[in-house]
Amino acid sequence: MERVAGMTEDSVCIVTGGGGPRIGSGICRALAVKGWTVVVADQNLAAATAVADEVRAAGGSAVPMVLDVTDADSVRRVVAATVAEFGGLDALVNSAGVGLRKPGAEATPEEFDRVHAINYRGPWTCIKEVLPVMLANGGGSIVNIGSVHAAGAAETFTLYAATKAALAALTKGTARDYGRRGIRCNIVHPGAVEVRGNEHLLDEFVATRQMLPAAVEAIDIGNAVAFLVSAEARAITGIELFVDAGTTAMLFSNGFTD
Ligand SMILES: NC(=O)c1ccc[n+]([C@@H]2O[C@H](COP(=O)([O-])OP(=O)(O)OC[C@H]3O[C@@H](n4cnc5c(N)ncnc54)[C@H](O)[C@@H]3O)[C@@H](O)[C@H]2O)c1
């Protein structure tokens, strides 16, 4: 793997949900290319190990760790193990997330709690646990993974969208609360990315719901994240960056005249 300059050669980043076959792994690969040491943190250890192995095989630096973002003790253990192994922690990417496809009022209380526990409370817990380390080091960078659904309504995505809109507010608030102390916090909103098994739906989505003709890939999300955590983005905080080939900015499909 050819390395290009990252923040510093010994920069360390935790990626929650880093074992994910789609966006999680794309983020880990993009960070490794930039020279980051990546802690691939996932509740699925086999998946995290596979991604860390893939990164190392390509010449990057990565270790797998077990993490459940809904369990504060688990998050604390990963942060402590990262600091013990690498001597610090420079960045956090909150990518662990789950979907929920139902009209909002038809979800059960258990479904409501689960999607909020993983998609919203989970990132909050991770931010809460990494901040003391970052503040003691003089700063750090956090990127949350939201969704285009944070920007508007698509039927049956109601509660998922609510978690991502809340995450966008948490992003801006964290940027505001800790900016003066060297913490940057931004959110990347992916469009439709590698919806495996649903290729025909993805083709239709690309044709009708994007400005650009190619599907967004996991590495596109990873590249945006790698930029935002890097020193090149030192003046950027509190932003929502849509990596969606134009989906969110599109108003109507053809056929509407006014
Ligand atoms: N795939 C898309 O089209 C898309 C679009 C917009 C936003 N997103 C967001 O991107 C992120 C990644 O989604 P993806 O669909 O690419 O999945 P992915 O392939 O990156 O996999 C998600 C990973 O999260 C892990 N995970 C789930 N619950 C966890 C928990 N409690 N603790 C730790 N790890 C946990 C899973 O084990 C899995 O490895 C999510 O936040 C999702 O909401 C995805």
Describe this structure in words.
Helix 1 (23-33) runs parallel beside helix 2, helix 1 packs across helix 7 (218-229) and helix 3 runs parallel beside helix 4. This protein has a single domain (12-242), classed as 3-Layer(aba) Sandwich (Rossmann fold), CATH 3.40.50. The chain has 258 residues and is of the alpha/beta class. It has helices spanning 23-33, 45-57, 72-86, 109-136, 158-178, 199-209, 218-229, and strands at residues 12-16, 37-42, 61-66, 91-94, 140-145, 183-190, 240-243. The chain binds nicotinamide-adenine-dinucleotide (NAD).
Strand order of the largest sheet: 3-2-1-4-5-6-7
Please name the fourth-level CATH homologous superfamily.
NAD(P)-binding Rossmann-like Domain
Alpha carbon gap, first and last residue: 50 Å
Largest sheet: 7 strands, parallel
Give the helix/strand class.
Answer: alpha/beta
Low-confidence stretches: 1-6
Q: How many distinct domains?
A: 1
Fraction of residues in helix: 40-55%
CATH fold type: Rossmann fold
The number of distinct helices, counting runs of at least 4 residues, comes to 7
Number of strands: 7
